[in-house]
Write the structure tokens for this entry.
Amino acid sequence: MSQTNVVVVGAGVIGLSTALVLSKHKNFNVTVVSKHMPGDYDIEYASPWAGANFMPVGKEGSKLRALEKATWPEVDRICRELPEAGIHYQECRVYGRKKDEGTAVGVWFQELMKEDPWFKDLMPDLRILDKSELPPSCDTGTVFKSVCINTAIYLPWLAGQCLKNNVILKRGILSHISEAPSHHSAGNASIILNCTGLLTSKLGGIMDTTVYPGRGQIAVVRNEPGAMHTTSGTDDGSDEAMYIMQRAAGGGTVIGGCLQHGNWDSQVDPNLAERILQRAVDICPSLAPKTGKVTELSVIRHGVGLRPMREGGIRVEKEKIGKEWVVHNYGHAGYGYQSSWGSAWEAERLALEILEKEGKTAKL
Ligand code: FAD
């Protein structure tokens, strides 16, 4: 059976998941080429900054909802069977406030906050919270079982799984997508996977102008909240958010945040940092059990990541650009982990369609 050379551009959660899925076909030779790799922290690399948890937010009829449905069983399986991947189960408490309807964060979390949500048969142990269980500022709430991923373990684990399947990982910066084949270890490739996230907006041959940053600022602390907590908004502006999640395996607790559309600023805003910590302690006093004060929080670091937003939502499509077949897989905004496997399998399906067009078949 003849071999097909495949280049995956990008080594975020989307590029690595896609490379891993493709590498299971014995007649695909996969090379991942990327400007950033697991271990790097950079404003152009969203994946390390994510919490990352699984809170379904896909709207009715959206691609995102289908991808979240497809992804949960795999994340659940990895959590259950593969502790070395750095995922653990954690109770997820979500609190709605009527006044957040229509705000940037309120729209993002609209489906999440419903008391009869579409994901009631997907996420285990979902129940409506009693009024006595809600923080005083909140009107509604539900709790369900979810996961929190330690991205500092999960991304290297994904890279390791790729290496085990003979994927070549290498550094490279592309200015145009047509350069991708020359980055393959064999010097040529028939299929290119574009997993460049936010930088798809600047990549020659694509330059998707509907892709833009959704800035997120976070703090990582040593304190333990006992459960994940999220509200539908805050009183500090329509684009400021409150979420708390404890990463698996000593990864600390990630506290956010904000969703600032169109903001490329890589620097931590110290005033926002103070508000982030204060809001977390207000909603989850068990973070600071001795004093109830922010000063009890032991900060590991503050950080900023840019979510790869896209006006039309996630793009998983194939396109012929010049002589090259490109499968796009980008635009995962604030939900790249919780849609990663569904996106990777969709990209795989498109890659197999290209092979079929060329009269070849894939071999598992
Ligand atoms: P990236 O991780 O940005 O990777 C893009 C890759 O492409 C990089 O390796 C980069 O170097 C490479 N690249 C780009 N251009 C080029 C080029 N020209 N040449 C070579 N290489 C190139 N999601 C969740 O599911 N749950 C969460 O709880 C969650 N929380 C988040 C919190 C914050 C603060 C942020 C910022 C995001 C959060 N997300 C969350 C969203 C998630 O992080 C993103 O959707 C996801 O990381 C996107 O992955 P990606 O691989 O598409 O992009």
The chain has a mean pLDDT of 97. The chain is about 20% helix and 25% strand. The domain at 4-358 is CATH 3.30.9.10 (D-Amino Acid Oxidase; Chain A, domain 2).
